[in-house]
Amino acid sequence: MNRSIRILDIGGSPSEMGSVHGDTYKDEIRQYANERVELVTSGLWSGGPLSRSDVLDIADSMLGAHERFDPALFEELHSMASAAGISPAEAIVVGGFTDFVDTVRAVVGGPMPTEVIEDDCTAMIVPDERAAGQGILGQTWDMHDSATEHVILLRIRPEDAPAALVFTTTGCLGQIGMNEAGLSVGINNLVGTDGTRGVTWPSVVRSMLKTESTAEAKRVLLGADLAGAHSFLIFDRHGDGCIVEAMPSARPIIELDGAPIVHTNHTLLAESSAVQADKAPGLMDSSSTRFDTATELLADGDIDVERVMDVTREPDAICQAAVDPYHIESSGAAIMRPATGEFWACWGRPIDNDYQKISWRP
To answer: In what order do the strands lie in the sheet with 342-347?
Structure first.
């Protein structure tokens, strides 16, 4: 199988952008939203079953935080939901699921389940010094295998922000991306014990993509009222980069300093580790092995885009295949070179599918 990623071109006002996304994928968004809500009602992520109305009440209570954080993105989310025939609360669940379940656990107060398995990515920043002056941000995006069908690429041209290429899923504002100024953002999911009724990570990613430098993007992230835990990789065309282990109550930073930096799905710094939830041993082993493998593969020599692609294809740890009991697979991957404005995306497992170089215009 060698399948191309679907690309959706959207531009204009926030309501226009949201309506195009929602109308284009309305059936798929409704299906995906129902699946995500049902996962939360099952109790697997909250320590006990919840009614659908209770789940959506929690999501509804987070809408105000999203509107205060970025009114334009909130309008886009609202328009997408309306066009797709779902509620804004359902849009919070389908787009920001992994942060939303951090919030659910904090609200419900149930025991912390170790089975949380969503969004287990391997990400890296290669500095300019190791990439012929043209540094690279790349990552796999790993999820439960049911998510792979929903992977798409948005080519967005907002009225009041830089154009951007955004790797995401149907119903989600954005997950990984680079704007025309070269500002690039990647992510890994983390699991925190300090969830709040705050802003979920897709809105944070998209708001960061309105900026033009790592310093500006970092200010957006550090000022956000976060709902849950993620690490954010930030890199700009001037070679300035960092990783922020962003928990609602802690946001320590790993600065880029001449050597590649890698992140997977466990915290590396004491401040964030203090509010990290326990992981099942198998999942922790996976995260640690992927971290060690990527670090070793990037340890020596010059690094170009093809070498980063090869890291994402590594078959024993990084390019994951769905197996029992967790069914995690590499649902896609993205590689960005801010200095040149080049973006490559892959649908599904990189070992099975080719990367596409994404143009800035249709």
So the answer is: 261-263, 123-126, 136-144, 328-337, 342-347, 356-357
Last residue of a domain, one of 77, 108, 139: 108
For residues 237 and 95, membership in a common domain is answered with no
Parallel/antiparallel/unpaired status of strands 184-189 and 176-179: antiparallel
Per-residue pLDDT of the chain (362 residues; tens, 9 = 90+): 689 999 999 999 999 999 999 999 999 999 999 999 998 898 776 667 899 999 999 999 999 999 999 999 999 999 999 999 999 999 999 999 989 988 998 888 766 555 555 557 999 999 999 999 999 999 999 987 888 999 999 999 999 999 999 999 999 999 999 999 999 999 999 989 999 999 999 999 999 999 999 999 999 999 999 999 999 999 999 999 999 999 999 999 999 999 999 999 999 999 999 999 887 787 889 999 999 999 999 999 999 999 999 999 999 999 999 888 777 899 999 999 999 999 999 999 999 999 999 999 99
User: Does 133 lie in the same domain as 83?
Assistant: no
Tell me the whole-structure pTM to 2 decimals.
Answer: 0.96
> Closest Cα partner for 346 from 21, 117, 6?
6
Q: Are strands 151-158 and 6-12 parallel, antiparallel or unpaired?
A: parallel
Lookup: tokens for 171:
């119903």
On whether both 100 and 14 belong to a single domain, the answer is yes
Angle subtended by helix axes 281-297 and 305-313, to nearest 10: 150
DSSP state of 360: S
- Domain of residue 68: give its range: 6-108
CA distances to 12, 111, 122, 190 from 273, in Å: 41, 18, 18, 10
